[in-house]
What we know:
Layout (H helix, E strand, L loop, with lengths): L6 H11 L9 E2 L2 H15 L5 E11 L2 E14 L2 E10 L2 E10 L2 E6 L22 E9 L2 E13 L6 E13 L4 E10 L5 E11 L12
Antiparallel strand pairs: 1-7, 2-3, 2-11, 3-4, 4-5, 5-6, 7-8, 8-9, 9-10, 10-11
Helix pairs in contact: 1-2
Amino acid sequence: MKFKLPLFTIIAFVFFAIPLNTSAQSKTITQAEYWSAVSSAYTSTHGKFPRREVEQYEAITDGKVSYLRIKTAEYRTATEFRIFTRIRKAGGDNFRELIQIGNARYCREDSSEWKTTGCYENPPAALEDAYESSFALQKSGDGITFKRTASYLGKENGKIGQSKFVTVDTLIVNLDSSIRDRTIVKSIFETKTIVSRVTEKYEYGMSLMPLEAPIK
């Protein structure tokens, strides 16, 4: 996505094009307006320090969490931060830790020694190939909610052929254009069974512990 318009420009455009009433009902917006607003919100958020981001991913099988990943990132500046990830699955917990100070990056897994190579974060997973999508905006007194609902076909465990799945992606943006939280829920259309859930929480202005290089 290569959208350059700031979030407030997109929001102003949507508000003037689709007047909101006092009941704060959800209003349909276009795909381009939605993704431009999302891109601008993340751009604004990534420029705010200090901040803490907590992302939790759950894969759900037969009504139980079969895989859990919790990633906590604390950013003092753009080049001084710590990311700690805990992964829980069958067989126990695993841990990953990454520290960046200036241009130096350090990482380790579980209780292994710190290293300075191979220290990177995997990019976000690609979106499903949706055959139907809708986008909406809703304004409240303390923020703006953007919602994407997408239907796609995928493989359901224990079934032959493809099933219909639905993703509901809800992003809440503060009035200063920073992200407050985001929830992405994927479920099976017919049974409403949730197969995965992602939650992201953002905090700003807290006091963070100073970082030290783990390798002297």
